[in-house]
Amino acid sequence: MANNSSNGDNQTTTKPPPLPSPLRFSKFFQSNMRILVTGGAGFIGSHLVDKLMENEKNEVIVVDNFFTGSKDNLKKWIGHPRFELIRHDVTEPLLIEVDQIYHLACPASPIFYKYNPVKTIKTNVIGTLNMLGLAKRVGARILLTSTSEVYGDPLIHPQPETYWGNVNPIGLRKLLCLKLHHLLPCTHYIVHGGFGAVMMRGSVAETLMFDYHRQHGIEIRIARIFNTYGPRMNIDDGRVVSNFIAQALR
Ligand SMILES: NC(=O)c1ccc[n+]([C@@H]2O[C@H](COP(=O)([O-])OP(=O)(O)OC[C@H]3O[C@@H](n4cnc5c(N)ncnc54)[C@H](O)[C@@H]3O)[C@@H](O)[C@H]2O)c1
Q1: Is the CA virtual torsion 71, 101, 89, 44 positive or negative?
Q2: CA-to-CA distance for 228 and 42, rounded, in angstroms?
Q3: Which one of 99, 103, 166, 248 has the fewest beta carbons within 10 angstroms of its own beta carbon?
Q4: Is 9 a member of any domain?
Q5: What is the mean pLDDT of residues 78-106?
Q6: Whose CA is closest to 217, among 92, 132, 108, 98?
């Protein structure tokens, strides 16, 4: 049943999510949850895989092109009957039956996302579109790992959920995100050297998520991750916490 709601000039249509595979309703179906983790060989992704694998009802499929991730991060699961590892680039379509998608694939460190900015943008835009298309086709719930950069350079600390952020107006703000400010607490245009990467992840990918949710009823989640550090992180990857620790050690 479509639910059309009108809000001034902001017309939105929310459709019910598509049905999952008919296999779900078959009589002898074992109700294991099949979970796809893109970027699962990376720092955060591999910890997420560890957590998901703890639940014996979960089957975990990792898709990664190993640009910044490594099989080493997953070695304890390789060969496990509930685990699959696929070398695949998310900029290419993926046909697979899953119930949930955790979409993490994207280089997160400045050194790597600046290495090939065009590819980084493709990963963010085409990769996210491919994953949303998959979620739509199979009726899967999808989570995007966005970034705290969407909050801009805040003027107040700490920031409550009601704070809309402080957006740097330089760059592609008006061009790319005119409609975003209707949807999101804030947009972000931190013009780092690798501006495309950070901005795209946070703004365009989030917009695509909301558009798919509104237009196709896809169930979405967005996690805006702040600076994270821990085991399996590359000490030289240029992120702030690892930089501080590495400098202190030196
Ligand atoms: N670590 C942080 O502090 C932080 C902060 C904000 C957001 N995030 C987001 O969280 C996610 C994971 O971050 P991370 O720190 O684990 O980074 P990471 O670089 O360790 O992991 C990213 C993974 O994605 C894979 N990948 C990259 N491009 C791909 C492509 N085109 N196709 C398939 N796989 C691809 C890499 O090989 C790697 O395994 C990223 O989306 C990042 O933007 C991380």
Answers
A1: negative
A2: 13
A3: 248
A4: no
A5: 96
A6: 132
- Residue 38 belongs to some domain of the structure: yes
Ligand 1 interacting residues, C-beta cut-off 6 A: 38-39, 41-45, 64-69, 89-91, 104-108, 123, 127, 145, 147, 201, 225, 227-228
CATH of residue 149's domain is 3.40.50.720
Residue 2 inside a domain? The answer is: no
Name the residue with the closest Cα to ligand 1, atom 11.
104
How far apart are the CA of 14 and the centre of ligand 1, in A? Answer: 30
The tens digit of pLDDT for each residue in 57-87 reads 999 999 999 999 999 999 999 999 999 999 9
Q: Is residue 1 situated within a structural domain? A: no
Atom of ligand 1 nearest to the CA of 239: 3
Beta carbons within 8 Å of 71's beta carbon, 6+ residues apart: 41, 78, 85
Question: Which domain does 163 fall in, by range?
Answer: 18-249
Looking at ligand 1, which residue's alpha carbon is closest to its atom 13? 108
What is the number of structural domains in the chain? 1
